[in-house]
Structures are given as C-alpha cells and as structure tokens.
Amino acid sequence: MNSEIQEYNNLLNGEEKKICDTLVEEITKHLKGTTSKIRHGHPVRFLEENPIVGYSKQKRGIVLLFWSGQSFEEAGLSAEGTFKAAEKVYTSSDQIDIEELENWLKKSRAIQRDYKNIVKCKGQLERLS
Fold it and tell me: How far apart are the C-alpha atoms of 34 and 90, rounded to whole Å?
C-alpha cells in the first residue's frame, strides 16, 4: 500500500479505520496495475492518470466515490455532483458488501469517463473505451 494512504488510514480511529482498511484492501486486490496517491487530501486510485475510485472521511461517514459510477447503473450507488460520479457512504464496517464492492471495482476499470482531460474538453466527459 502507498505509504501516504497508510498514513491517512492510520490517522483514523475505530470503525472509520476498519472501513478504510477494508476498502483499500479490496481496491488493491481488484485494481492491480493502477496507481494510488493522495489527491485533494484523500486516497484516490488512477488508471493511466484517470481517477477511478477514492474514499474520504466526511461528517456523514466514510464516502467511497467512483468517478464514473453513474454509468455503472447500480442501485447501491447514489449520484454525486454534476458529472458522472456516484458514491456509497459507510458508517460501519459491516455495511460493506464485499461482492457488491468487487462488482463496482470491476466496473470502475471497464467503464470510465475521461476525467483526466475534463478541462481540455471544456467540462464534457467522454466515455473511454
């Protein structure tokens, strides 16, 4: 695991740490060949410099965000923001459905929008093949 992400998780306590440790373990297992770093203060995974999944501690819980998640067409994710992102909020580690998470992670690799070039494309999100 990226040492910055390990540091991020280590700053958390109790359930928040358990949630984040589970998320990073599953993300690492199912998104081999991706890179990770802290972006805007939160752990994010990238595929060819394109952000695909990340998580953050917020008041409402640990928020797992898929940049192209609305394109997954999954009932367990909620739309987030004005682009194509979707999220899942966890307040307890037992809320994490590993099979559901694995499905989303597979989709995050297969279904991507071009966030890397969003400024160059003037806010238009093209689907990557």
Answer: 24
CB crowding 11-36: b at 16 or more within 10 Å, else e: eeeebbbbbbbbbbebbeebbeebeb
Cα→Cα distances 25→20, 30, 81, 82, 91, Å: 8, 9, 26, 29, 18
Q: Choose among 61, 30, 51: nearest CA to 116.
A: 51
Q: What number of H helices and E strands is found in the chain?
A: 3, 8
Strand (E) or helix (H) holding 56: strand 50-58
- Is 123's pLDDT higher than 60? no
> Which of 12, 23, 16 is CA-nearest to residue 92?
16
Does 122 have pLDDT greater than 80?
no
Q: What is the pTM of this model?
A: 0.88
Residue 100 has pLDDT above 90, yes or no: yes
